[in-house]
Amino acid sequence: MRPRWHKILSDLFDHVVRSLLVIASIAVGLFAIGMITTTYVILSEDIRSGYEAGNPANIQVTAAGMDDAYIEHIQNLPGVADAQGVAALTFEVRTGTGQWQPINIKARDFTPHSGSLIGQPALLQGAWPPADKEIVLETNRMADTGAALGDTLEVRLPSGVIRRLPVTGVVQDQTVGADRGEGGFFLAGIQGYVTVDTLPWLERPETYNTLYATVSQGRNDRAAIRVVADRVLRDLERNSYFTGGSIVRTSQEHPNLTYVDAMTAVIYILGFLVVFLSGFLITNTFSALLNQQVEQIGVMKTLGASRGQIVRLYMVLILVFSLIALLIAVPLSYQAAYAFLTYLSGRINFRVETFRFVPVSTLLQALVALIVPQVAGSLPILQGTRISVREALSGTATAQVENTGALYRLLARMRGLSRPMMISLRNTLRKRARLILTLITLVLGGATFIATFNVRNSISSYIDRLRLYFLADVNLTLDQPYRVDRVVRDILEGVPGIARVEGWSGAPATLVMPDGSSGPNMQVVAPPLESTLIEPLLLEGRWLMPGDQNAITLSELIHDEAPDVRLGDTIRLKIAGKESDWVVVGFFQFAGRSSGLFAYTSYEYLSKQMGTYGRSASFRIVSGVPLDSKGQEDLGRRVEAHLSQLGYEINDVGEGLSLQERTSQGLDILTTFLLIMSFLMASVGSIGLMGTMSLNVMERTREIGVMRAIGASNRAIMKIVLLEGVLIGLISWLLSCVVGLLISKQLADTMFQIIFDRSADLAFTLSGNLIWLGLVLLLSVLASVVPAYNASRLTIREVLANE
Questions:
Q1: Is the CB of residue 463 less than 8 Å from the CB of residue 667?
Q2: Which of 305, 447, 528, 632 is paired with 572 by a 20 to 30 Å CA distance?
Q3: 553 contacts: CB under 8 Å, gap ≥ 6
Q4: CB burial class (10 A; 0-12, 13-18, 19+) of residue 771?
Q5: The pTM is what?
Q6: Cα 479 from Cα 729, distance rounded (Å)
Q7: SS3 of residue 585 by DSSP
Q8: What is the pLDDT of residue 403?
Q9: H-helix segments, 580-655
């Protein structure tokens, strides 16, 4: 074996701790890159391919009374590949706690005449499809029922009759929420599936109120799908069916794709930062390694080695370190990515396919392993091999680097501090280049950690503002419009503790484009003009005022769906099969793409247009005292019980706070995602600190021996090293707080633009700063205590003989 390979193997195995630190410095960056890239690739692929595999509907239309003959007629329309009818019904189910909650049941023929079932869920347990008088539950809200496979579910019909259906299967349906726009998954209730033969037993006719259709061409082209959807709508209207417009969606447009786009943007930013941090980490580590081997470089030059040969030797050493780190990082990054994806899959409703190799992730890790360490290590190697033989063997170069600087000299003249504190302060500044690189690595990791908490707080602050749209304690929906004054009187007289009841209206609407084609769908909500149960967040224009007729306000999502709509414009909406003109008087901020397109108008005007003036099926109820979620739930049960005794048929009773919580669930997923990513970034910075402290202690092993020889105790030595680590941690924390402000704004704006189509109103929080302070101090101690303890246990003879 040639001497240079003896040298490489000696560097690898004679200093195991040092080698492990170098490998860890490279591996942590490769691990983070691999985890982020694998997560991104699999998440982007599986959420689209899994959704497409379920044969989702490209067109969805609501129209009551459709039968099999008409569905077959729709199948023959030009551009329609397949059409199937669904009876979408709402009943009540008894939960494990004995309470009744709404359940959405889809009844359909599970043996379509052509093609596969539109919206085919994935079977998780039991059998699919259900038989007559059986039910299959969707997994996402199944826990709310308290039922398991094989149990019997009690379903209460509007007439009060209770039916018992055995649960014969559990499925995952990725189309849940597709009928409500983005974020609809989080608003969706308990989902169940029965066969159409079960409908008479559930006191419902064997007809359909929802049409699913797929297109024969352009399944991922929204414009092509819209053309076919307009054709289907015209046919429905010609056959005297009243529709609420159509919902169009491409075959890869998962309902929660907005959240994936937001996560992808964060992944891009963090991936760049990880590569940046990894480079600094490697530069710092190899600077320390070369500093330790100055004398060896002098010996090699004395024996005739050229600078180029020494440079190549260390480059090969870097390559060996990189390959070992790559072998460690690749499998660990895959395991971490799949664990993270499994966590996400249950929260944004997609399925992670079987474990698979992601070539782009492994290739990127390999490229980073081969390029970044070489580039990052080249600077310290070129600097370290530049010194002359005399400087290397005498140690004068190291001494010059260590003992210059005005701040260092100022510390030398300070009085009043204990000797351990003085030594720690001086040691902290002895290796200024290493200190700067360590601080850069640690500051960027800490700043990202702090920024994540600021972004989480900004999103949480925005979620709290959404409650201004849900100020009622109880939201009541009846099966049909009733006289408002009668319902209000019955509630106020029969349920104590209620201060106010308001009757609201609402309807699905379709924007009619200037060329007459159908535009985006929206949900129009119509509170009374005098209502105080909503405090909108206006972006432009004004809110509804007394005397308004056809005035309407639109949510910010209209700028994405119909960018030409401006304040003061007159738009045409199709509501309940009739077209009417409306004047846009304002735009308000809601939950962006996480909620779908909303509009507000007055109850008085909309109810007159729909022929329901003085009647309503939707009521908002306010208690006389502030209520928490449990209090609202209790009030809702009392209202439901009282109205049921009076003969009202109730579709839904919901607490105001629960609606706000469900609206914000999708945003909570993003804040949790940010938190996990922040800990990943913090781990990269912490490895840098641990490497620096360990190398610092290793370099001063002989110095520690001298201190022990003149009487320093083990405790004093430990204290000096720990103080040095804590000082570095405190300096990095102060800088992280400043840099974190800049990163917070960039990260928050990126996420808010994707979700809300606006810049972020950054809400700062001290929690991230304080948590990072605790973590960095803990890491400082952990990074220092082990090497200091090991050095303090060596005998004076062993320490002074250390190379």
A1: yes
A2: 528
A3: 536, 541, 543, 544, 584, 585, 586, 587, 588, 599, 600, 601
A4: middle
A5: 0.73
A6: 63
A7: strand
A8: 46
A9: 603-610, 629-645
pLDDT tens, residue by residue, 385-421 = 777 777 666 655 544 444 445 555 555 555 556 666 6
- Of 803, 776, 799, the C-alpha closest to 787 is 799
Per-residue pLDDT, averaged over 312-317, amounts to 82
What CA–CA distance (Å, rounded) separates 497 from 237?
47
Q: Span 11-40, mean pLDDT? A: 80
pLDDT of residue 677: 72
The pLDDT score that the predictor gives to residue 471 is: 85
B/e letters for 161-193, b = 16+ CB within 10 Å, e = fewer, are: eebebbbbbbbbbbbbbbbbbbbbbbbbbbbbb
How far apart are alpha carbons 773 and 770 in whole angstroms? Answer: 5
Q: What are phi and psi of 598, to 5 degrees?
A: -120, 155
Phi, psi of 675 (to 5 degrees): -65, -45
Residue 508 token pair: 């699905």
- 3-state secondary structure (DSSP) of residue 788: helix
Give the range among 1-5, 170-174, 748-752 with minimum mean pLDDT: 1-5
Contact 87, 268 (CB under 8 A): no
Residues 6+ away with beta carbon under 8 Å from 706: 800
Give the three-class secondary structure for 190.
strand
Residues 350/47, Cβ–Cβ less than 8 Å: yes
Structure tokens at 650: 């109730």
Mean pLDDT, residues 260-274 taken together: 75
- pLDDT at position 399 is 46
**C-alpha dihedral sign at 212, 665, 461, 622:** positive
More confident residue, 183 or 672: 672
pLDDT at 191: 92
Q: Which residues pair with 170 in a beta bridge?
A: 125, 137
User: Is residue 433 very low, low, confident or very high in pLDDT (cuts 50, 70, 90)?
Assistant: low
- Ramachandran area for residue 516 (φ above 0: left; ψ -120 to 50: alpha; else beta): left
Note the pLDDT of residue 431: 64
| Closest listed residue to residue 166, CA positions, set 205, 200, 194 | 194
Phi first, then psi: what are they for 334, rounded to 5°?
-65, -45
Helices marked H in 571-664: 603-610, 629-645, 656-663
Q: How far apart are CA 338 and CA 39, in angstroms?
A: 7
782: left (phi over 0), alpha (psi -120 to 50) or beta: alpha
What secondary structure letter does DSSP report for 801?
T
Alpha-helical (H) ranges within 700-756 are 701-709, 714-756
Does the structure show a pLDDT above 90 at 683? no
List b or e across 582-604, with b for residues whose CB sees 16 or more CB atoms inside 10 angstroms: bebbbbbbbbbbbbbbbbbbbbb
Mean pLDDT within 477-489? 90
Give the other-Cβ count within 10 Å of 21's Cβ: 22
Burial of 223 (0-12, 13-18, 19+ CB in 10 A): exposed
pLDDT of residue 400: 44
Contact between 764 and 457 (Cβ < 8 Å): yes
DSSP annotation of 325: H
Of 179 and 108, the structure prediction assigns the larger pLDDT to 108
- Write down the pLDDT at residue 659: 61
pLDDT at 114 > cutoff 60: no
Q: Is 150 left (phi over 0), alpha (psi -120 to 50) or beta?
A: left
- CA within 13 Å, CB half, 166: 8
